[in-house]
Amino acid sequence: MRPHKHCSGRIPGLESAGEAGLDRVRDFFQQPVVASFIAGGIAGAVSRTVVSPLERLKILFQVQSVGRNEYKMSVPKALAKMWRDEGWRGFMAGNGTNCIRIVPYSAVQFGAYNMYKRFFESEPGGQLGPYQRLFCGGLAGITSVTTTYPLDIVRTRLSIQSASFESLKREAGQKLPGMWGILVAMYKNEGGFLALYRGILPTVAGVAPYVGLNFMVYEMARTKFTPEGQKDPTAIGKLGAGAVSGAIAQTCTYPFDVLRRRFQVNTMTGMGYQYNGISDAIRMIIKTEGIRGMYKGIVPNLLKVAPSMASSWLSFELTRDFVMGKRRTQFL
């Protein structure tokens, strides 16, 4: 008996319906905002893991007030001390929480930027002016930091609770709380929901111009690193543009980052300070620690911001182009 022509098991109607469904899924992910959201999350995780030891060291420098000298030393010596005291775990302390925070933070930031810039484009995909990039980047920064701020506080506390600060010494064998333990303890003991947003005002004040400058400077630097006759820079050029944009943006907004860290640990005992507000914090820091107190930790921060932002922008562009089905980026 001759087999029926459809006995192969392939049903043309279902095949075309399945292909149409795949096309719709593909079209959804290839939208600029969606692709930027996905690529931003991956870029955030890559960049933070690359520079985790320097990120933690920056926080330890920032929260150390006058009279506390446990980490009053050069960056290499401080990293060596961190390794002696805590080993590899010390280098990665808080990085898990940081990645849990940074993936949605970075995803929302890049996605929001691409959403906001649509309001300023003369045509889809059109170029923005420098001030338009600055404004859209600032709005994207505010959106992303508000969404993920409680995890940022937890990351800060995880970063310092195991450090060898004399005033934070604890009994041998005492188990340190994890991410959820800190969140619950802050909620119960430090003022409820508002405790999870302590320090949000100086954070927003610093993040908005930082993210705005980062996007603006990167787009400008990107054109300088693009070879003549080419539309896009090579991967090395993108790394260079990311490093330049990160360094400029961080240097301009760094005092806000110090204020953010101080307020995030303001209610912890043994830190040596209790600030009543932003103006009081600025006054007390300058009075007791000088203007240099507003830039504590900037050296490890600048050392980490170049590889951090370089890897972030490169990861973002590579992932976005892959999701959108664009040609592979040329590396050399």
CATH homology superfamily name: Mitochondrial carrier domain
Q: What is the general shape? A: globular
> Helix proportion of residues, in percent?
55-70%
From the 3D structure, determine the CATH topology: Mitochondrial carrier fold
Structural class: mainly alpha
What's the number of extended β-strand segments? 0
Number of helices: 11
For the record, the CATH class is Mainly Alpha
Which band does the percent of strand residues land in? Answer: under 5%
Assembly annotation: single chain
Largest β-sheet summary: none
Count of separate structural domains: 1
CATH architecture: Alpha/alpha barrel
Protein described:
Mitochondrial transporter that mediates uptake of thiamine pyrophosphate (ThPP) into mitochondria. This is Mitochondrial thiamine pyrophosphate carrier 1. Its main location: mitochondrion. Belongs to the mitochondrial carrier (TC 2.A.29) family. It is found in: Mitochondrion inner membrane. The chain is mostly helical and 332 residues long. The chain has a single domain, classed as Mitochondrial carrier fold, CATH 1.50.40.10. 68% of the residues lie in helices and 0% in strands. It has 11 helices and no strands. It has helices at residues 12-29, 32-50, 52-63, 75-92, 95-116, 130-161, 179-189, 200-224, 235-264, 278-289, 298-323. Helix 5 runs antiparallel to helix 6 (130-161) and helix 6 (130-161) crosses helix 8 (200-224). Mean pLDDT is 79; it is low at 328-332.
